[in-house]
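Fold these two proteins, one after the other.
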Amino acid sequence: MSAAVELKRISKKFGDFYANKQVSLTVERGTVHAIVGENGAGKSTLMKILYGLYQPDEGEIYINGARASLSSPADAIRLGIGMVHQHFMLVRSLSVLENVILGSEPVRHLQIDFDAARRTLEALSSQFGLHVNPDAPVSSLSVGEEQRVEILKLLYRHAQILILDEPTAVLTPLEVEQLFSTLKSLSAQGKTVLVITHKLDEVLAFSDYVSVMRQGELVQTLPTAQTNKTMLARLMVGKDVLLSLPHVDTPPKDEVLQVQSLTYLDAKGVPHLQSLSFSICAGEIYGIAGVEGNGQSELLKTLWGMIDEGAQVSGTVLLSGISLLGKSPRAIAQLGVSHVPEDRLRYAVVPSYSIAENLIFGRHYEPNFSTRFALRFDALYTFCRDMIQAFDVRSAKGISPDERIENLSGGNQQKVVSARELSRPRLKLLILAQPTRGVDIGAIEFIHRKILDARKQGVAILLISAELDEIISLSDRIGCLYKGQIRYEFSREETLRLRQNPTEFEKKIGEYIT
């Protein structure tokens, strides 16, 4: 095998902060090469340099043995390099076909040759198993289908080196398996794939080589077959990491949340929740396992007072005897409810605002942060610095309370959201939707400890996660959600017993959610 990519002594500084420092990396042609590391370790910066979005302060780049100068993504594309970003770059009002050819339209007789483009797209879809309806508007696609469109865009432009940034962050388990199959197919046909990820189980499942970065430096590159999850975690963090925290069983207390016969019909009358019933006690974590799209979003909207316009909701939702239906998010928060939403960019952060502003988003009226007439900036900045340190928030450009949150990686944005919601005072109910999505393994351990601390303090916790190992390791009881109903509920006794064999537990849960 020969090298498709060689990065030699690459350094990149933002002010006095080294995002990358003397990084040398070789990627063999026709392999799947994973890049892992904590949030802020320099992974995305390094790949953005390879894609021409950033230029290195020093170092050399070689593509297929020839030295390359990448002053823009256009240069990278000409050299056969393509990148699928963590947040997709699609025009949602256009069709799949229009998105794929956008900027590279074939022309015949001074008009776009849609027939030729369609034939090329269908051939690529068949060759690499990336099936998607060419005429479907992107707005109608699932997240997994959108990702296929992004990959097809690169293949349509003859990319030989594909960079994927956190490609499985929002995929269902089935879509993850389909992506793995696609990556193997790409490498088998001579393409070179670089994947930035935090998910070590997936690294071990799909990659040929893995490189570990820490604090801007490349720590080690290994054949994946010669490593394991514990070793990779230690290399990433620089110390041993508890991959699963001890779970101490505690007796149930008074019910805090009661959901009874909850039904949710959207504006078109389509049911998303059907007579859904469950309850959560103080000091208990109730996990909801299920493939995304089975009513989780509608449940969250109902609990947080953000029901879609035209939707019809019936049933009962009580917090310590007080109905939550019809109340605003602020009124619900003032009752002692905190919420980490599933879509941070849509519901949890304002990208153009600073870290400090986002840390009090929805909390600005609390006496700690404001007087009757103005914000208490000293208290705000003290709180912000404490949260940045406690949750290890990092940025490629350094970190300060005034840093705009859009400059942070997705994982670091998630840390900010988690810090804000897990630190709310006088909590009764904590609603967590994908709380560690995109977060590095060291921060996952920290967030899990904070969740268990809240449980210990008597907070009732609803945990919705696509990560079954997260559901299994944290939950006291588990409800399996399928087509808007709890299909089966694992009791405290079953959960405690089955936790000793996580693989068997995952299989049992899988029977009820698919």
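Now the second one:
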Amino acid sequence: MTVAGIAIGIAAIVALRATADGLTNYYALFGGSGADLLITQEESVDAMFSAIKEEVGQQLANLPEVQSVAGMLVTLASVEGAPYFIVFGYDAQEFAIQHFKIVEGEGLSTRSVGRRGKPLILGKMAAQNLGKGIGDTLKLLEGTYRIVGIYETGKPIEESGAVISLEEAQAIAGKPRQVNAYQVQLRDLGQMQRVRQRIDRRFPDLTISASADFADEQEMLAYMRGFTWAVSLLAVLIGGVGVMNTMLMSVFERTREIGVLRALGWRKGRILLMILRESLLLSSLGGVAGIGLGAGAVRALAHMPATVGVLSGTFSGDLFLQALAVTFALGIVGGLYPAWRASRLLPLQALRYEGGGLSASTLHVRIGGMAVRNLSRQRTRTLLTMVGLGVAIMGIVLLEALTDGLVDMVAAFAFKNEVDLAAMEADASMDLSTIDERVVKRIAALPGVKSAGGILTGYASTRDLAFFVVFGYHPAGQGIRHFQIVEGEGLSANRQIIIGRVAAENLKKEVGETIRIFNTPFRVVGIYETGVPFEDGGGVMRLHDAQMLFKQPRKVSFVGIKVEDPDRVEDVRRRIEEGFPEVFVSVAADFAEGAVDIKVTRSMTWAITVLAIIVSGVGMTNTMVMSVFERTREIGVLRALGWRRARVLGMILRESVALSLASGLAGIVGGMVVGRALNTMPLVASFIRLSFSPTLLARALLTALLLGAVGGLYPAWHASRLQPLEALRYE
């Protein structure tokens, strides 16, 4: 059981780190086509949100030191069974597309354009996972493409996606005549610094990076790695507690044996090394099994249609060495205290040890208090088990509070706009949703629709805040009304912005000061409060200003719809979806739960929760099994005194449930304390607020109780099956 617990914990570390390294390859692919320099938009929170006009590429190509320039665009689109599918847009005539080596069919040449539909080349892994071949069609959002070639690059995240023409990718992403980045090849690498300075002077709103260094400069990757390490630490803590608990019980069980060895002349150091070697062997077995399990899980996820292109993990020698190092550390840390305790045993005391004997007071204690008394006999074991289970429950509480906070944020964003229906681009991520304003006007003209207004959301990274959300509203629209001005005034002209109270504190801005976003100055004319962290940590400007700022002319991200008759909301919703299949429409109160991003987030949360439950459940079962073995003779006495099997079973189950209840309560309290602390951090407070609802807390407590019941079931059954005579003879 201990080996199983360690294996699951190490598997989690391997899987999460491999996935994070796979995301590193996502950033590496921006410069993986033989380019020397990579140019993106300054202050964009991620390269996928970067937007550079095509005219810039023409000017870069005219520089004398530049040999060639290639524009690229990366976006996400839904395909059959996969909510997130990476699509690359390249010009077939530029050097960057040569990075995709065609192994079957042909490339995106001028011959394939316009011949029997729009051409697409598909990655080898994506072709296998989706069951597609040359000549088949693939639907991306509302467009249908013909597969003309299969490519390889050696990078799973690229081979799990597809490549289309740059113009088609711009249409899918809603970025006409724009790219995410420009890849630049130089005539002479010795002139790199000179070229960087020249481009920086000419284009102050761009960021120039050496292609090899681009991935290391991305803050989003640092946040992802931080989250990975946090979840890995959770698995390590639970696994380490399990090792220590097992080795400690091993020492208790073999106290007399250790006494014999000490009497035969074994020194303290030899005893200590013996226990440490056992602990290392135990953790090593679990570690090796966990590495195999984690690698298998990543491979399996990479071949599932729902996760193709997103969870494409990357394995390296460093990853496996780190996993083995963690395994070794688990063995050392988990076995150190038990080994030290064993080495301190005196021979005479150890030889007299009788184990968990049955005292007269135990028989006379009331049944209701026997569970607590039995658990208190081995306080160290009980405490370690509580720590392991408590950490698991704390992790579950924090993850679910984070997810619930995200749902609340999106729901409040839709609901507080005082609309009946909310809409976004169908099958798209909320961050990448784009809807043409002409569609909004056509929706507003439908029978039963009172009004329809668009909202544009965008993200920027400022000098003082890594993540700043901008909302674009029509100044006379209904949606902007819920931004309650507490200082200054509302929007009255272009190049003005009102910012939330949290953003004002984080940015240290007051009314009348200027804030620069993408090198464009905006005057702060007011400070507002809405009670929604996502909004209070951002700013609001006129819709036209936001469209120009994010290079999204005549585009919106979301649409708020007010109906004439509240009783006909569902009829209006169906009419809109039938008339506009490219739009996802939902009742405002249910908008969050219907979004693809929320569904994927909930699935990931449940996956991590199940992992924590399995690891902690194994630990609970292990503890109760050891408790039964230690008290075998005592159980024999109870059976000889007339206790029936059901009574013994109930006693063990009560102990298990009591232990899980105490651990669950401690984990819930710990999760709430950590969550409250996170809510005060500027980065978290400006984006989301962890939500601890009574339902969440009740669910966490129920999980702990179920873990106690399930974890104690086999040990209780085993104890109830003990025969009195055999139990009394147990040594």
